[in-house]
Structures are given as structure tokens and as C-alpha cells.
Design brief:
This protein has 255 residues and is of the alpha/beta class. It has a single domain (2-250), classed as Vaccinia Virus protein VP39 (Rossmann fold), CATH 3.40.50.150. Helix content is 42%, strand content 20%. The strands form two sheets. A seven-stranded mixed beta sheet has the order 3-2-1-4-5-9-8. A two-stranded antiparallel sheet has the order 6-7.
Length: 255
């Protein structure tokens, strides 16, 4: 009887979560859903948002970003032809946008795909085109607290051995060079930096959802048990929040 009540209780919890769009991880993947959910919390008062490197995740981002905001998606190549949003095909290192145009500029797991030698150009461009808020979500390599590189390498090794292929998205993190806290704080001093994925939980979730059969199991485990453990050290990734108006030396005049 106790077991039956526990099962019923779990089912009720799941159905309650469906109402909050938490079924989306089954479609998009837990990691993608989670990072957009994390960034969404910072954008409630923004009237205009530039999303850099949105690519194939534009549809997912649209579900989380404020519906009343003017949102522009920029990517080097991956854009949705059926989208109703404004889209720009452009290079993050040289944005075709005038100074201080957007209330917020966000980069959700895209910075780590830019090579380390030119990443500072992207950060500078983000600073130039925002009139206040910058949000970055990215894997981070700053041991012992942030171990993005170490766990990306472990994940790649698991994929090759168990599934027989190399995850190209993760491989690009490694060859580009993982971002460091120093890189971010050099351009965005006084930023708020928060760890967002416990390394062990991230690796477990990513490994399980790599196989379509185990994705529903990973989703249930994450929702019911693993989610509450994600805010513990060591972290795989971080969320950086920077307010330009609090650092007036970085404010540029409109063209």
C-alpha cells in the first residue's frame, strides 16, 4: 500500500509539472531546456533582446523569452525559415548593430564555440550593443569550482566507448578552448557569476539522454530527484549577469 501511494504521488507531481512546460526536456533535451529556463529569470523587464548564436534552439528560446519583448536572433548560419521572429545572419565577432540598441544581449551556450583567440571580440561586441544587461550561460574551466573541460572530455570518452560516435557539439568546446572566469571578468568586471550544473549530475543526464530509449528515464530522474542537487560544487557551467549602467566607464554613446 505504501509503495502504491508513492507511485501515485510521483504521477501527480509529474502532471503538475506538465503545466509548467517541464515536458519540453523530452523534446529538446534536459540540458537545453535547463539553460534557457535559467536565463529566462533575468529577462522579465527587458523590452528588446538580442540572442546571439541561437541557431537551432530558436524555437525553444522563443518559449522562454518574454512574449512582449522585441527579440532578434543572430547566428552565423542556422536560422529557422518558418520563424516569425526577426533574424540576422551575422558574425558574433562583428555585429551589424549600432551601439546601445538592446536592453539585453544574451548568449546561451554559444560563447564556448568561439575560438579562445577571438572570443574577446564577441564579449566586446556584446558590451557595445547593449544599453544595460548582458547574460551569458556557458561551460566554464576554473578548477576546482568549475570543471567544464574535464567533464566534456569524460563525456566524449563515454560517447565513443558506449555509443560509438563523437559528439561534435562537445568536441567543438574542447578544440575552441573552454571559457575561463578571467576572460569574462576582464570584459565584465563586477559581474554576478553563478554555478548552474553540478558536474556529476550533468554527466549522468547527458549520458542517459544520448540514447533515445533512456531519455524519458533521465527526464523523470531529473525532475524528481536530480534537479535539487544541481546547485552543488563542482559545477560544469555558469550563468554570468552583468549590468552595464553599474559600470559607466563601459557605456558607449549612440552612433
Amino acid at each position: 500500500m505504501h509503495l502504491f501511494k508513492s507511485v501515485v504521488s510521483c504521477i501527480k507531481k509529474l502532471f503538475k509539472r506538465f503545466k509548467r512546460h517541464e515536458i519540453l526536456p523530452l523534446v529538446y533535451g534536459i540540458d537545453r531546456w535547463n539553460r534557457h529556463k535559467i536565463v529566462e529569470r533575468e529577462l522579465k523587464d527587458c523590452g528588446s533582446i538580442l540572442n546571439l548564436g541561437s541557431g537551432i534552439e530558436e524555437e525553444l528560446a522563443t518559449l522562454f523569452l518574454p512574449q512582449y519583448a522585441n527579440i532578434v536572433f543572430l547566428d552565423l548560419q542556422h536560422l529557422n525559415s518558418k520563424s516569425k521572429n526577426m533574424q540576422i545572419i551575422g558574425d558574433m565577432r562583428c555585429l551589424p548593430i549600432r551601439n546601445n540598441l538592446f536592453d539585453a544581449v544574451i548568449a546561451i551556450d554559444s560563447i564556448e564555440h568561439i575560438s579562445k583567440k577571438s572570443r574577446f571580440l564577441v564579449l566586446k561586441e556584446m558590451l557595445r550593443v547593449t544599453n544595460d544587461l548582458i547574460i551569458i550561460h556557458s561551460p566554464l574551466d576554473n578548477p576546482p569550482k568549475f570543471l567544464g573541460r574535464k567533464y566534456d572530455l569524460i563525456f566524449l570518452k563515454i560517447n565513443r566507448r558506449l555509443l560509438g560516435y563523437t559528439d561534435l557539439n562537445t568536441y567543438e568546446h574542447v578544440i575552441s578552448g573552454h571559457p575561463t572566469l578571467e576572460e569574462f571578468l576582464d570584459i565584465f568586471p563586477n559581474s554576478k557569476v553563478i554555478g548552474t550544473w553540478n558536474c556529476h549530475i550533468w554527466l549522468l543526464v547527458m549520458t542517459m539522454q544520448s540514447t533515445i530509449v533512456f531519455r524519458p528515464i533521465a527526464w523523470v530522474l531529473y525532475l524528481l530527484f536530480l534537479k535539487r542537487l544541481c546547485n552543488k560544487n563542482p559545477f560544469y557551467s555558469c550563468k554570468l549577469v552583468y549590468h552595464k549602467f553599474l559600470n559607466p566607464e563601459n557605456f558607449t554613446i549612440n552612433d
